[in-house]
Amino acid sequence: MKTITVLGSLNYDVVTRTKVVPKGGETINAESFETHHGGKGANQALAARRLSSKDSVNVKMIGKVGNDNFGHELKESLESEGIDTTKVAVVEGVRTGVSTILVETDSGENRIMFYDGANGTHKTEEITPALFAGSDMVILQNEVPLPVVYQSLKTAHQAGIPTTYNPSPVDANTPVEVFNNVDYLVVNSSEAQVLSQSEDINDSVEQAQKVIKALVTKLGCANAVITLGANGAVYYSSKLDQTGHVPASKVEKIVDTTGAGDTFLGAFSSKVVTGSPLPEAISFAAKAAAIAVTREGAAEGIPHLTEVE
After folding, report:
1. CA 118 to CA 12: how far, in whole Å?
2. Per the residue annotation, which of 116, 183, 203, 262 is the catalytic one?
3. Does residue 259 have a known ligand-binding role?
4. Per-residue confidence at 92, pLDDT binned at 50, 70, 90?
5. How far apart are CA 274 and CA 284, in angstroms?
6. Does residue 256 have a known ligand-binding role?
7. How many angstroms separate the CA atoms of 69 and 29, rounded?
8. Residue 283 belongs to a domain with what CATH number?
9. 252 confidence band (pLDDT: 50, 70, 90)
10. Which residue range forms the structural domain that includes residue 160?
11. Structural domain total, the chain
């Protein structure tokens, strides 16, 4: 049995769908409104859980919520999926994190505003080797305080635990030494462009292949994956000195891209932790993400293992 531990955000998503994005000072009628469970951390944990066998992978969540209805609902939802929430703390005096998401109905593209709430109360002194004891992989993103993310990567790496890092929202000022503690860096093309300070990749396979080896060399991480939407993903392994491209799965109609990246990362991690090589893990993750974008909602859109295999 392998254990994936995700340290990250738990948010309540408030979603408005519209054909047209309003300009400054403009008021328009939206097409629909709904709420969903979210947060990159929670979504990635959920993806890892749904897209792996419960006989082979255990998933644990480390995070914080407020002592409010949103927080209790989020925690109970993860528990109902079979995720260990023992280390999801309920914090007094602060609200649960909230993401406000605007989705364009024609394209499925989204715009997200994030209020960290309880997610912002993590402290570096809480990050100890004991926190990750028994883990076979630790997953992190950037929706909790960055010093906590950096300390978590360092602590896990020093303990010999493989780390997967999705630096989103991306920070161009991330210290290079942080990436020395990253085994699997997973970014989209815009995040790769910021970190590499290269020309815009624009989801181009050719451009991404030019950038990715230089990115790994510059940052010092072991492996990197750049996702390219409809063009699939490219990867580079420093150990093998190998670059490759994995095509995307065909999508008939994109409905909502909100949870695609988190679905990809959770699916990818579930395969890597059980020994799959990079191309196989990426192909599986691409199939899962292709299903996710055909559905509404980040968490709700994440498919189950039986739908992908």
Report:
1. 11
2. 262
3. no
4. very high
5. 13
6. yes
7. 28
8. 3.40.1190.20
9. confident
10. 2-23+31-308
11. 1
